[in-house]
Each structure stands twice: as structure tokens, then as C-alpha cells.
Specification:
Structural class: alpha/beta
CATH architecture of the largest domain: Up-down Bundle
Distance between the termini: 42 Å
Number of domains: 2
Order of helices and strands: EHEHHEHEHHEEEEHHHHHHHHH
CATH class of the largest domain: Mainly Alpha
CATH topology of the largest domain: Dehydroquinate synthase-like, alpha domain
Number of strands: 8
Strand content: 5-15%
Helix content: 40-55%
């Protein structure tokens, strides 16, 4: 990984040194160009003799149709590697493309569990937003445009070949996007912390420190978006929130039921990912806290300084503090605030908890998810 001011100018050099002469440059909308990242990467590629073909227009909730489009471009032009310049949606898309381009079937087969990832095309991640940690993990989340199903794919083959994080390239990220991404990062840490694995106190200390840092850094970054030192610390904290370091030693590798519920909302309404989590996460916490009351009480005391002697009271106060923090960032706390019709909740629950259900601390079936949605309404 390359981290620091100016590292994006090394993309072409690294590709050339790895033996690649042609790449697909994958990106989203105008923001990557407005931030200067597009021009910097293009100059670097050209300066080292690397031809590039473009595929732009990746949406914030990336669709499988864009993956299919990119795979077609790669195959038609015999492209050798991928450069994903953008946030989590662009990098998530690159992971699916890298697997799909060397697969004879449809790329959605990986997400629907009909096929396992085999050989992949190398891809390089140029991060322009700090939120999902996709630039440092092997998970890809994509939506099927037709069925409105949003789901994730995780495979060790899907780690980026090399990652480039220049915090100064994120100076132009809108304040709201900083807040939404920060909420995602905080939830990533909590979802591992509360998964019910016993005897992981050192890892809990690490997670508590990460959350405390994020609670301080997110509002600072929003207030001082061009402060390099703040943005650098925030970029690193957000990456560590889901790069595997928090769940080392955790048997369940995290409980991501809240993300599943959030994905169902994003797929159907194109809702902002961070907003879905600010609504659902506290209510998931209230619903499952008795399955790991020690962790919920400890979190409240060590992260928020709650001093209640009762574990139950401490846990509940800690959850309220989480909600208050999300609200302080301007995030919604109710589904009605983002325009979700109450009559859609049952359908959403079925999509969020297919098959045997979701979650590890407490396995949630459709009725459980529906209860959480109702409490979130």
C-alpha cells in the first residue's frame, strides 16, 4: 500500500513495473475529475507507457449491469489490469469485474452463490473517499438492478494488488459524504466488537480506541476538510475499521446484520448507505444487546464514559449515545425521514433475511428483521 501526499502519481510506475501495458480506468462521476485524481492518474499512466480505456458512471450503490459493461470493454480490448479510482462503490465494482472477466458465466453468479471466485484480473485501488475500507479489504457489495437485491461477496482473491491513499485527494469530498462515510466506518468496528466472541479483550481495546478516534476525527474532518493531518488520520482509521485487523481472533468475523438491513434499503430506494446504518444500527443494538450484555456495557463505559453500575443501564445509555452522535452529524434516525413507506417493511425484511437469516450474535429471521425495521420507523 502507498499512503501519503502525492502517491497517486505513482500508479503508472507501479503498473509498468508489474508488467502491465494496458488497463481499464474505472471511476464514478465528476468528483474524481474535480478532485484532480483523474488527471493525476492519467498523466501517470501515459508517462509510463500504459494505455488506458475508460469506464465511468459507477453509481454510489453500484449495479451489476455496470460490471457487465466493464467486462465487455476489457474483453473487447484485451486489457490486462484494472485501475479503480474512486470510493467504495468503484473499488467494490472493480473486485467483481476482476473475478467476472475470467469467468465463463455471468458475474452475478458470484454474488448469488452459484459460483466461487476462481482466477482474477489484477486491480489497483486509488481511494478518493474514506468510508467502506474497500481499498484494503476483499469484500464487494453490488446490486442486481432487476431484482433490487443488494448483497456482498467476500473472497481472499479480491484484495487489491496495490492501494494508493492520498488524503489530500479527499479535500473536496462534501461534508455530508464525510459524515456518511464516518458512520459506515464506526458501524464496521461495532459490528465486529459485538459479535459475541469471548476472550478477545485485546481486540476489544483496539476497537474501542478506533471508535474513540473516529468519534473525534469525523466532526473534525467535516469542520476542517482541507487539514491534511486530520484527513490522514481519518483515512487511516476508516481503512482499519474494515481491513481485517478488528476481527482477528473473532470466530464470527463480525455480525453484519445491520449492513444486510441497510443494503435492502439501498437496493430498493437508492438510499445513502451511511443513512441506512444511522437508522438501523442503534435499533439492532437494542434488539440483540442481551446476547452480549458484557460487551455492550463495556463499550458504553470505555467509549462514552458511561458510569452506571448496572450493565443493562450502561448498555442502553451507550446505545443512546451512539444515536446522539449520528444525529449530531445530521444523519436520520427514522426510516420515515428517508421516505420509506411503512407498507414496504415486510418485503424489505424478506430481502434482508433470506434463507436461514442473518447475523451471528443472534440469528435474525424475517420476523426479527421486521421488528427492527418497525422500531426504526
Amino acid at each position: 500500500m502507498f499512503f501519503g501526499r502525492g502517491v497517486n502519481s505513482r500508479v503508472g510506475e507501479e503498473l509498468a513495473s508489474d508488467g502491465f501495458s494496458s488497463v481499464l480506468l474505472l471511476y464514478g462521476g465528476a468528483s474524481v475529475k474535480a478532485a484532480g485524481v483523474y488527471d493525476e492518474v492519467v498523466r501517470s499512466l501515459a508517462g509510463h507507457g500504459v494505455r488506458f480505456f475508460e469506464c465511468g458512471g459507477v453509481k454510489p450503490n453500484p449495479s451489476v449491469s455496470k460490471l457487465r459493461e466493464a467486462i465487455g470493454i476489457i474483453r473487447s480490448n484485451e486489457i490486462e489490469a484494472i485501475v479503480a479510482a474512486g470510493g467504495g462503490s468503484v473499488i467494490d465494482s472493480a473486485k467483481g469485474i476482476s473475478a467476472g472477466v475470467r469467468y465463463d458465466g455471468d458475474v452475478w453468479d458470484f454474488y448469488s452463490r452459484k459460483a466461487q471466485v476462481g482466477p482474477v484480473m489484477p486491480f489497483y485501488a486509488v481511494a478518493t473517499v474514506s468510508a467502506t475500507a474497500s481499498e484494503m479489504n476483499c469484500t464487494s457489495v453490488v446490486t442486481d438492478d432487476e431484482t433490487e437485491v443488494k448483497t456482498g461477496l467476500t473472497d481472499f482473491a479480491l484484495f487489491p494488488s496495490k492501494t494508493f491513499i492520498d488524503p489530500s485527494a479527499q479535500f473536496s469530498v462534501p461534508v455530508k459524504q464525510i459524515a456518511d462515510g464516518g458512520i459506515d466506518a464506526v458501524c464496521h468496528v461495532m459490528e465486529t466488537y459485538f459479535d459475541g466472541t469471548p476472550d478477545v479483550d485485546l481486540q476489544m481495546e483496539y476497537a474501542e480506541g478506533l471508535v474513540r478516534s473516529l468519534l473525534e476525527l469525523i466532526p473534525k474532518a467535516a469542520a476542517n476538510p482541507r487539514d491534511y493531518e486530520i484527513r490522514a488520520q481519518y483515512a487511516w482509521a476508516a481503512a482499519c475499521a474494515l481491513n481485517g485487523t478488528t476481527w482477528a481472533g473473532h470466530s464470527g468475523k463480525g455480525d453484519f446484520a445491520s449492513h444486510a438491513m441497510g443494503h435492502a434499503l439501498s437496493a430498493k430506494y437508492d438510499a445513502v448507505h451511511g443513512e441506512t446504518l444511522s437508522i438501523v444500527m442503534p435499533n439492532w443494538m437494542r434488539y440483540v444487546m442481551h446476547g452480549n450484555l458484557y460487551a455492550f456495557a463495556r463499550f458504553a463505559r470505555r467509549v462514552f464514559g458511561v458510569d452506571s453500575p448496572s450493565d443493562e443501564d450502561a448498555a442502553r445509555e451507550g446505545i443512546e449515545r451512539v444515536s446522539e452522535f449520528f444525529r449530531s452529524l445530521g444523519a436520520p434516525l427514522r426510516l420515515r425521514e428517508i421516505g420509506v413507506p411503512e407498507e414496504d417493511l415486510e418485503d424489505l425484511a424478506r430481502k434482508a433475511a433470506p434463507g436461514s437469516g442473518v447475523g451471528s450474535l443472534k440469528k435474525l429471521g424475517v420476523s426479527d428483521v421486521l421488528d427492527i425495521y418497525k422500531a426504526s420507523y
